[in-house]
Amino acid sequence: MALVKPVLFQVAGYQNSGKTTLTLTLIQQLAAKGLKVATVKHHGHGGRPEVVEGKDSDKHVKAGAAVSLVEGGGRMVIHAENDKWSLSEEIDMLSFFKPDVILIEGYKKEPYPKAVILRDESDLELVEKLQNIQVVLCRNAELANVLKGLSFPVFEIDDGVNWILEYISSTH
Known about the structure:
Layout: E1 7-13, H1 19-32, E2 37-41, H2 56-62, E3 67-72, E4 75-80, H3 87-95, E5 101-105, E6 114-118, H4 125-129, E7 133-138, H5 141-147, E8 154-156, H6 157-171
Parallel strand pairs: 1-5, 1-6, 2-5, 6-7, 7-8
Antiparallel strand pairs: 3-4
């Protein structure tokens, strides 16, 4: 049963903090509960994400198509080119598929409810810089203990998964 408006939740942190691992865990757990999950991932490696060059959809876009869709065997691949896509445009696109939840990996400066992953003390600046933090997840127990007493819950990363699942369920 899809909602009219999906729950939006971000996973933020610096590179190699564990965002993808956490996002994959959340996808698996939410899907196991019967929720339809969509994801947006920021390609933070510079440049454009890879596409299969020379395939028909690539040729269509290079010829001037704004968007090309390929479907086969139930799989749909959309290739669209624009100068830049805003996160809200990407969310609008995913909303067409009527997900219950949209998980956003990256885009840390966006204002959506989020979990922030801290690798070590050098990442502490994120706690002060970012908006709408719902939970902080630490890669080590010592850091988690140092941060107890913040205005939001703090967990070791593995212990925070259940908190996020409860948060999404209660928002859903």
